């Protein structure tokens, strides 16, 4: 989404590609730009081509990028995570657009993604990469229903579906190898519970499973001991061929008390938009109960992140009241009130890269809240608290003396969680905390949040556009549209019996890591 030049109009950026690759005169090139914008589904193309990227929504920017790619008349289109930053409905639109263009032009698409649901929807064949190498390749059904590599098993097991239940999501143990160092044997061996002695010594070749299916694992060697895929992997094909079932959905998740932790009444937040007002949060009322996880979902631009930031006081509310336990916060916070509020309410931000100050060590980032609120007796106590917080979120205490750039995305998000926990809050607002992470790291962060909630009695407001993950972690879910909550229900009830057409549309657009189910959607 940042691939477009912010200083050039969208039309000129497409024009640049057209002139470079098709050698057309300006008049014809301009007409071609108009046709390309219309072809990728941008309405009012003649007006839009004169606008800048910041005037486009995320989905429109992605369509503009597709138009630039099509200007070259390619035989192969390389789509690198083209839907990752988009909500499910826009994601579905972009996928359908790419499929339509593929059929029209007869081109091939290499679709790179960490979203297995999207891959199940779009791919004829799938390659699984680990540590710079393809470790398994096959037809889509080969990989999703009959995978042979333990890493493929791990990715599939870590991906929640709408039927996923239980307290803990599966995660792949350990971390990826440092590719700057030499790797002896199979790169996945340190994380592979099925690893044999030969895995530590020699890299496996690609073994043939069928004419369409190959995998690089010593488990396929004729002399290797027989190892069955995990039960959930073996059951995938059988479940896909059977009728979708909703019975026996697992234990009741509701565990909160009747005590209201946070109450939002008739909250409003408006922004000036070229002389008019944009009502990002429009007369919204909501209660969060102590100890619950409340999921908040909706398309990009529906106001869910604005709601979270307004509750936090990062945006000044335009109207309404916010009550934390028995204390009314009004629509704006004084300095002392804000400090007291932020001791009880903290936020985890979406981007683990931009939300940490790159100039500060991890110790300074985590310690900041402790120092501001006088929660440490002395320097030794401060260092001990920071070390304990890092340990709590699953990081080595020695990470305290590193900078953010030295950490992976998942590790940085854990630092963000440690920072939020530092002041011992009662409520955490998690604003898209996993959207920038791959599937296994997402599972780790969600498991961590559930564990911390259980241990500390935290209340969570979990904002996301990944509806499968929201269902898995949430007790109740609110669906936002145009600044309002249009439906609110227990998590299972919402997904099994949605009452609002918008909720139905969101749920039907959820991509599932199941090619047969994705095919059934189209039929």
Automatic annotation (TrEMBL):
PROSITE patterns: ABC_TRANSPORTER_1, ABC_TRANSPORTER_2. The keyword DNA damage does not apply. NCBIfam families: oligo_HPY, PRK11308.1. GO terms for biological process: peptide transport; transmembrane transport. Residues 262-507 form the ABC transporter domain. Keywords: ATP-binding, Nucleotide-binding, Transport. InterPro entries: AAA+_ATPase, ABC_transp_ATP-bind, ABC_transporter-like_ATP-bd, ABC_transporter-like_CS, Oligopep_ABC_C, P-loop_NTPase. It comes from the Bacteria. Belongs to the ABC transporter superfamily. This is Oligopeptide transport system permease protein OppB. GO terms for molecular function: ATP binding; ATP hydrolysis activity.
């Amino acid at each position: 989404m940042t691939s477009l030049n912010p200083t050039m109009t969208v039309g000129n950026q497409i024009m640049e590609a057209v002139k470079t690759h098709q050698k057309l005169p300006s008049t014809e090139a301009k007409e071609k730009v108009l046709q390309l914008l219309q072809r990728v589904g941008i309405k009012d193309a003649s007006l839009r081509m004169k606008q800048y990227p910041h005037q486009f929504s995320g989905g429109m920017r992605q369509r503009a990028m597709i138009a630039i790619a099509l200007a070259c008349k390619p035989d192969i289109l390389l789509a690198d995570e083209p839907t990752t930053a988009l909500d499910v409905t826009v994601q579905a639109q972009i996928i359908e657009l790419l499929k339509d263009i593929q059929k029209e032009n007869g081109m091939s698409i290499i679709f790179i993604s960490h979203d297995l649901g999207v891959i199940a929807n779009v791919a004829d064949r799938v390659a699984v990469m680990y540590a710079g190498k393809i470790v398994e390749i096959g037809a889509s059904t080969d990989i999703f229903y009959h995978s042979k590599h333990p890493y493929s098993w791990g990715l599939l097991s870590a991906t929640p579906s709408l039927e996923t239940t239980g307290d803990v999501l599966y995660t792949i143990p350990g971390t990826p190898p440092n590719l700057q160092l030499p790797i002896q044997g199979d790169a996945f061996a340190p994380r592979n519970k099925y690893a044999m002695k030969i895995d530590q010594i020699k890299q496996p070749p690609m073994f043939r499973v069928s004419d369409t299916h190959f995998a690089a694992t010593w488990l396929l060697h004729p002399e290797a001991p027989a190892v069955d895929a995990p039960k959930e992997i073996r059951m995938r094909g059988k479940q896909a061929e059977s009728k979708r079932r909703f019975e026996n959905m697992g234990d009741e998740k509701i565990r909160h008390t009747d005590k209201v932790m946070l109450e939002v009444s008739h909250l409003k937040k408006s922004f000036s938009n070229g002389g008019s007002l944009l009502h990002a949060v429009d007369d919204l009322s909501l209660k969060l109960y102590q100890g619950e996880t409340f999921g908040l979902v909706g398309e990009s631009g529906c106001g869910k992140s604005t709601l979270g930031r307004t509750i936090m006081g990062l945006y000044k509310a335009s109207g309404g009241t916010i009550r934390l336990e028995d204390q009314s916060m009004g629509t704006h916070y004084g300095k002392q009130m804000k400090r007291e509020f932020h001791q009880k309410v903290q936020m985890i931000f979406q981007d683990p890269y931009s939300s940490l100050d790159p100039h500060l060590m991890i110790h300074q980032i985590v310690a900041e809240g402790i120092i501001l609120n006088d929660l440490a007796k002395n320097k030794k106590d401060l260092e001990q608290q920071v070390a304990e917080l890092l340990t709590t979120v699953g990081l080595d205490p020695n990470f305290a003396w590193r900078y953010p750039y030295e950490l992976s995305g998942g590790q940085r998000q854990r630092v963000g969680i440690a920072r939020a926990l530092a002041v011992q809050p009662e409520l955490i607002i998690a604003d898209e905390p996993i959207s920038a992470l791959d599937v296994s790291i997402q599972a780790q962060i969600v498991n961590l949040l559930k564990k911390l909630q259980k241990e500390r009695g935290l209340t969570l407001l979990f904002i996301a556009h990944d509806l499968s993950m929201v269902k898995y972690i949430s007790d109740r879910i609110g669906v936002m549209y145009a600044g309002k909550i249009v439906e609110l229900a227990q998590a299972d009830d919402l997904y099994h019996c949605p009452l609002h057409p918008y909720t139905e549309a969101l749920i039907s657009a959820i991509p599932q890591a199941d090619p047969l189910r994705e095919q059934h959607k189209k039929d």
